[in-house]
Amino acid sequence: xxxxxxEFAGVGGSSEGLTKVPGTQLIFAAxxxxxxxxxxxxxxxxxxxxxxxxxxxxxxxxxxxDIFWASPSCPPWSNARGKRRDFDHSTQGVLFWEEQxxxxxxxxxxxxxxxxxxxxxxxxxxxxxxxxVVENVIECRKWDQxxxxxxxxxxxxxxxRVIALNSMHVTAARSLRAPQSRNRLFVAYWxxxxxxxxDWNKWLRPTAWCTTCEMRVTALQVFxxxxxxxxAYGKYxxxxxxxxxxxxxxxxxxxxxxxxxxxxxxxxxxTRIADRSEPLADATMERIRVGIAKYARPMTVPAGGTxxxxxSPIDRPxxxxxxxxxxxxxxxxxxxxxxxxxxxxxxxxxDPLRTQTARNETxxxxxxxxxxxxxxxxxxxxxxxxxxxxxVTASGNHHGLVTGQTLLIPYYSNGTARxxxxxxxxVTxxxxxxxxxxxSSVDLADVRFRMLxxxxxxxxMAFPDTYIVHGNKRDRVRQYGNAVTPPVAEVLxxxxxxxxxxxALDREATA
Length: 511
Prior knowledge:
The protein is of the alpha/beta class. The protein is built from ten helices and 25 strands. The strands form six sheets. Strands 7, 14, 17, 18, 19, 21, 22, 24 and 25 form a nine-stranded mixed β-sheet that branches.
């Protein structure tokens, strides 16, 4: 068995995925947060845990592992924080009156150094790590110390691969799929002594339907700007996917996804807006109005001051989950941003959920689309839910769609409601998404609205319903939003295990 050490393991998304890979055994996990350690230990009771600041620990006493997964703190790097980033010039001198990096940002940079530090320690022990993965947000690539940092890893005897990957495009053999759009940076590395290179084409290329070739293909990732190796997926991102066949001139294709509706518990009705004890913010109400006018269908919506802009249908993947509750659901279902940033729009539940942060900032509104609930701006923005229903999986109870439509609504000012047929937006560490439903007559007073529940956010992160997460609602959302989606960890570790052992693994689930 190949031993694995999961550093900065959090609630255990990476552990959940990598332990699905045949021939691996998780032996050690480390994290500074006591609650996250307790949650991790509840799901992996046979694993040794270190609770504390890894940067201050004597890692020479840590166990040596064949595979090393590390997820250094990502929020200080991320645009989702809504703070000015300065890590692209972190070593430049500053005038005495200029703002200094906050302690959390300094710590995030320091934690990146823990990766080469552990690799170096194991080399000095005479038993090098065979392979590993570093996970972070895509903004980390702009760090002005990036070249120096990755060179240190290579100097320890490793080849490296920088990978831009969105969770909604990943299909693993044994893990659940993530109905969430979550762009992340990964650095995979493997020891040169292995004499093999991972088959990244096998593990990273998503399936897609090429309308010109009239066939399903394994799509090619293409960056819009030559020489770029990192960025977000999509129309306004840095890369897209193309068909590998020349007869269609390598047409742009959309990889298969599952919608945010797969994560929604349709047995939970929400409260009529007219019956709420506290009225929704004016900006949120306006986003719901716009979403209903455009779609009158379910959407997920960014909420709670996050960076995300649009609500989305729940038949698309959810946006990236962060450590905050940032998505809401509206009926006809829309995902509605509820955080207080400008430019957020409600979106259909046919889309993936947006990225989950550490807060729940998305509401669910029925009719379906996503809108922002806090602050002003982008009140006329909402996203369609007309994406193919075929992307919706069988998970979840969809009976609620018969009499009304649902929207996911972001709880922040620059979010828009979205239909629940789209993937949920990124899950953060705060509660930023709510759910709104409407009756057959589109009267705002009859729209049902609620925030997404932690269990729904867990599903958007591709955790099984049986996964144990300790704490109250906010604590659970924060832990989910900080996690790695399990299918991504499974796929990346599978590629590395093949390289270590020389034995091929099944790319798809077998009966």
